[in-house]
Amino acid sequence: MSILDGLPKSEAEWRRLMDAAAPIAQRLIDELELSPKAQSILKLMSEGMALADICGLTQEERDAMFIRGCRMIQAGDVTKGRDWMLMLHQLEPLDARVIYAIALTYQGEGNIALAAKLYVHFIALDAANPEGHLRLGECLLSAREYDGAIAHFAVGERLSRGTNAAAAAHAVRMHAHALERRSAHQRLRQAAR
Fold first, then answer.
1. Do residues 108 and 128 lie in contact, with contact meaning Cβ atoms separated by under 8 Å?
2. Exposed end of the chain (fewer CB within 10 Å): N or C?
3. What are 57-70's pLDDT values in tens digits?
4. In a domain, 123, yes or no
5. Which helix (DSSP H) or strand (DSSP E) does residue 125 occupy?
6. What is the residue range of 159's domain?
7. Phi and psi torsions of 4, nearest 5°
8. Model pTM?
9. Are residues 56 and 43 part of one domain?
């Protein structure tokens, strides 16, 4: 059992889920008595437009909203900051940095399963960013999923090498720590036999 259980394992599985959900969602939307404007917005969203684009929010405005959410979180108002980020995520679902910030709040509160799933989403949007792999590795390590943690620390180290010395050093330390924890866990299991 993994903290990542429940996530689709392949693009084909994602497509099957989306194909199954689409008629249900459409039926629910059809049953609602929506104004023409609301119907127009839903149509644009179904075509792939973000709500932020539909509402005419500029990138500068989105950046300002992101900074405000970060400041709330950094000031210790994690719930309010996360709520702000969740609202921003609804406006722009593919903004990887927003997903990362939301995941950090859950990880900080110890909800590693939810944080890990969000980091997977972040990595899907920004696979070359070592921070997502490092944070996912930390979550997997906390869940005693050593092989996954080791793999993500290795990826984080490889991606940060030459570009981010601090991240690379953290990845090396965490990789070694995960290897030690896995060995200790294996020794305990063998001793228990």
1. no
2. C
3. 999 999 999 999 99
4. no
5. helix 112-125
6. 128-193
7. -95, 5
8. 0.86
9. no
